[in-house]
Specification:
about 250 residues, seven-stranded mixed sheet, four-stranded antiparallel sheet, 11 strands
Length: about 250
């Protein structure tokens, strides 16, 4: 699972706001916010597991109390700059136990770094343990086994210092029928003095079936559903949101 395992989340963490700017998370956050707004009880406290640089959380503040958890100290440092009022915790979404409950638990695309069903059960168990009765847990993987399509893409941005970052991405399924896919990245990082560094990196990501998600959510004790999420754009499938409501 990604923490300091991948260079993107360790030595390159300071480049994250340029590689994947916060504004690009507005659509995802709007859909998540709509799920929160439709919840049976007001969502005033949120636990964000695998919060990364805090870009989704930045859009969800709106008077909510946010607790942001990530394995990467570097990404948490980035998030503290963006979300200074949030509580930040360095921890593993598979084993974390804070001893408190929240109105909602969010696991955005960091769940993609879960690549076995055993680990997915652990993450769902963590969400259940921190979800108050009547609350909900929301999981937003980039892909399911049914929706995944090989493809390519990219993006990037600049900052006020003159730094520039861009990336290219290619996703494939080397072994169809299993629970993981491969994302191959090339990051191009330009310093204000014109120095350029190119960093290639391959990430192994999970891609579980819809039935697997619903079965594991139900087994953990949630009332589970799968709901349409954000349109992937560029011909990519709509992201499926998995919602667990704790009785």
């Amino acid at each position: 699972m990604a923490g300091d395992e991948y260079r993107l989340y360790s030595e390159l963490a300071g480049w994250w706001p340029l590689i994947s700017p916060p504004g690009e998370y507005a659509d995802d956050a709007a859909v998540i916010g709509a799920v929160f707004a439709a919840a049976a009880m007001p969502v005033r406290s949120v636990l964000d597991l695998g919060s990364g640089g805090g870009h989704v959380a930045w859009h969800l503040r709106g008077g909510r109390s946010l607790t942001l958890v990530d394995l990467s100290a570097g990404m948490l440092a980035v998030s503290r700059q963006l979300n200074p009022d949030a509580t930040h915790v360095e921890g593993d979404m598979r084993t974390l136990r804070l001893g408190q409950v929240f109105d909602a638990v969010l696991v955005h695309d960091a769940v993609d770094y879960i690549t076995t069903q055993k680990e997915l059960r652990q993450v769902i168990g963590t969400a259940f343990a921190h979800c108050r009765p009547g609350g909900l847990a929301l999981f937003a993987p980039d892909h399911t086994a049914e929706t995944f399509r090989p493809g390519s893409g990219g993006g990037g941005g600049t900052d006020a210092t003159g730094r520039q970052a861009s990336f290219r991405e290619k996703t494939t399924d080397p072994e169809p029928g299993d629970d993981w896919i491969l994302a191959e990245y090339e990051f191009t990082l330009r310093e204000p003095d014109g120095t350029v560094r190119v960093v290639p990196e391959a990430h192994r990501l999970g891609s579980f079936s819809r039935d697997t998600w619903l079965r594991l959510l139900t087994r953990a004790g949630f009332e589970a559903s799968a709901e349409p999420g954000v349109d992937g754009g560029g011909g990519r499938p709509v992201r499926i949101l998995f919602v667990g409501r704790r009785p």
